[in-house]
Design a protein that fits this description.
Distance between the termini: 102 Å
CATH superfamily of the largest domain: Urease metallochaperone UreE, N-terminal domain
CATH topology of the largest domain: HSP40/DNAj peptide-binding domain
Number of helices: 8
Number of strands: 21
Number of domains: 5
Helix content: 10-25%
Strand content: 25-35%
Largest sheet: 4 strands, mixed
CATH class of the largest domain: Mainly Beta
CATH architecture of the largest domain: Sandwich
Order of helices and strands: EEEEHHHHHEHEEEEEEEEEEHEEEEEEH
Radius of gyration: 42 Å
Strand order of the largest sheet: 14-15-21-18
């Protein structure tokens, strides 16, 4: 059995007026009378076969009793209880376009929009709708929720009434853009070897991009053909339509059907590019790699992206760099790291090491008594700073001391003698 909410209308004196007594579902009707000092008290009445609750108290201190009626979410959206999800969604979209505050500024419309939002929030959710069908409004109160806005795009409202996407800046979404549009930027991935990344160089690449048509110079118009202002829209690219709605007559901007929104009418389009003004071309470029680049750096080549439509400027080409690893070296910024194995005798007595660097092999003096894991530094033999080969980092050598797993008898005697000496 459900509870229904009946609203009270209050007079300026505070008296409450209810409709004349009516027999609801076989029970007695509800009457209300209130005095100047009336207080409002909520009473619940069961409809559909039970006996009604009468509220009748007259006099200066009379209390007015209101009967609250439960909301019918299906009725709010104007659908049957057996309506499908699609029917509920379509009904909501239809009413939302009609009562959205951006297109209907009246207070009644604002309240109506909130009520249909509440209804759609419940009926669009499968679990909440099931609870509502079983328990009524009490089954979904406090469950929160809002309309599924990914199912309903407010842009639909503006598109319907203003002819544009979103309506930002007022009704003019379909305005024709002025000035040439720049073409798209392009991306090219280039892999470099370790040495080229350090010291720079040149690489040849082949790209495919859009270039301005050589026949029409990017205009899309056949040579000698005329281009005239559209007579239907006066060059604006849009026309105004009047739409009859329940709220009255509304003006709606739409794309001009004659010129397609360009504002001009072309006598004849270019046959080489089919009026697009651009053609796809393959092109070879030589890319200059500056010294000191690292993995993930990108280079910009201006004007080598796609050409813009109707003679617009070209976008840029972005070359993203990835660096091949070198098994001999590890790079961190401007510094290079390597490891070198030495015998325990060289570590004890000291030695001169032949260390390969990114330039060439150099001599590095290892002092006597060098401990395992010691790092030695060669200054100025690291990676150059970006775009500056004269500024270099350092080369670091980590010493790994090798301990033999087996020695000869003579070596063992010598080591034992050394042990006794220490």
């Amino acid at each position: 059995m459900r509870l229904f909410a009946l609203a009270l209308l209050l007079s300026p004196t505070g008296a409450a007026f209810l409709p004349p007594p009516a027999h609801l579902g076989g029970g007695r009707g509800v009457a209300a009378a209130a005095g100047p000092a009336a207080r409002t008290q909520a009473v619940f009445m069961h409809l559909g076969g039970g006996r009604g609750t009468a509220a009748a108290a007259a006099g200066p201190a009379a209390r007015t009793r209101a009967v609250f009626m439960e909301a019918d979410y299906y009725a709010r959206l104007g659908v049957q209880r057996s309506a499908s999800d699609k029917e509920i969604k379509n009904a909501y979209r239809k009413q939302a376009r009609q009562y959205h505050p951006d297109v209907n500024p009246s207070e009644d419309a604002k309240e109506k929009f909130q009520t249909i939002n509440e209804a759609y929030a419940v009926l669009s959710d499968e679990s909440m709708r099931a609870r509502y069908d079983q328990f009524g409004e009490a089954g979904v109160k406090g469950a929160g929720g809002a309309p599924n806005m990914q199912d309903f795009d407010l842009g639909d409202i503006f598109e319907s009434f203003f002819g544009g996407g979103g309506g930002v800046g007022g009704p003019g979404g379909a305005r024709r853009r002025s000035g040439p549009m720049q073409g798209d930027d392009l991306r090219f991935d280039l892999e470099l070897d370790f040495q080229t990344a350090l010291f720079g160089g040149e690489k040849r690449i082949r790209i495919t991009h859009l270039e301005n048509c050589g026949t029409c110079s990017g205009s899309g118009v056949a040579p000698g053909a005329s281009v005239n202002t559209c007579s239907d829209c006066g060059g604006r690219g849009s026309t105004v339509q009047v739409v009859n709605t329940i709220m009255g007559r509304l003006q709606q901007q739409v794309r001009c059907p004659t010129c397609g929104g360009t504002g001009t009418v072309v006598e004849k389009y270019c046959g080489d590019c089919d009026g697009r003004g651009v053609q796809k071309r393959s092109k070879q470029l030589t890319i200059s790699i500056p010294p000191g680049v690292e993995d993930g750096n990108r280079l910009r080549v201006r004007g080598e992206g796609d050409a813009g439509p109707k003679g617009g400027p070209s976008g840029d080409l972005y070359v993203f760099l990835s660096i091949k690893a070198d098994p001999r070296f590890r790079r961190e910024g401007m510094d290079i790291y390597t490891e070198m194995s030495v015998s325990y005798l060289d570590a004890i007595l000291g030695s001169t090491l032949r260390v390969p660097t990114v330039d060439a092999t150099v001599d590095l003096k290892m002092p006597a008594g060098t401990q395992p894991g010691t790092t030695l530094r060669i200054e100025g033999k690291g990676a150059p700073k970006l775009n500056n080969v004269n500024m270099r980092g350092s080369h670091y050598v980590k010493v790994k001391v090798e301990i033999p797993k087996s020695i000869s008898g003579e070596e063992q005697k010598l080591i034992e003698q050394l042990q006794k000496l220490r």
